[in-house]
Amino acid sequence: MTGIMTLFISSAIVFSLAFLGLMLFLGLWTYKDAQVKTDQSPVLWVLVVLLVPNFLGLVVYMLVGRTNKQAQAPGAYKKPMLAFAALTVVTFFVFIGSAIGFAFQGGGDWAASGYQRGVMIDAFGNARRGTFFGMSTSHRNNEWRVSVVRGNGTIQISPRLDEAQIAQLRVAGEAGGGEIFLRIEQDGRMEEFHVTDFDGTLDLTGFSPGRIRMTLELEHASDVRIAVSWSVG
Question: How many C-beta atoms lie closer than 10 Å to residue 29's C-beta?
Fold first, then answer.
């Protein structure tokens, strides 16, 4: 797991917990405050403050609900409420920043990535070169899946295949536009296949068991869906 992904997940968890803590102490503060500052039901104002979105309920309570101007506010739960409010704001900005960084870095199998340029290698061993938008990749269970909204460049992995897997290497590819090619290389031998709107088994006669380099080449392609599998049985 990359550092930006760890920050993204951690900040999301902390933000969620901080927001729940803020709502809890905001409700408690409103209840105690309304017992003194208004003649209406404190429970009613707690519901207004917590259920009206975007903290508009709190604004309404502060402007309209606190009718007993002379009564001194108890101030109960004020300090923890403000502490959770500050933590919520800080973690919110950290979460947004890490989400943007995560999108630009690429999410691997987690989600479609945003805009990518240059060379990078993700957790699944995909080496990418070029420009991609909306990419998601996975390499697991003897299958390599790639999804790209728009792309122009190459994506590469080097799995280790046995003789049976080489004989049953299958590709299912489709694209809304552009062209997709799959290049297979091993020890100086190279075969290239046009896999746009293709679904079938590749003829890899002459390739030996061992590590094989697979390179997907997208030429101004859009709405790409590729599945390369080497399962046997």
Answer: 23
Break the chain into its structural domains and give their ranges.
Answer: 3-105, 115-229
Evaluate whether the domain defined by 115-229 bears CATH number 1.20.1740.
no
CA distance 2 to 17: 23
* Residue 162 backbone dihedrals phi, psi, to 5 degrees: -95, 180
CA distance 112 to 68: 54
Q: How far apart are CA 51 and CA 177, in angstroms?
A: 47
Q: What is the mean pLDDT of residues 131-155?
A: 87
Q: pTM above the 0.85 mark?
A: no
* Beta bridge mates, 193: 182
- Asked whether the beta carbons of 154 and 174 are under 8 A apart, the reply is no
What region does 41 belong to: left with phi over 0, alpha with psi -120 to 50, or beta? beta
Task: State pLDDT tens for residues 155-168.
Answer: 989 889 999 999 99
Query: Which residue shows structure tokens 């190279």?
Result: 190
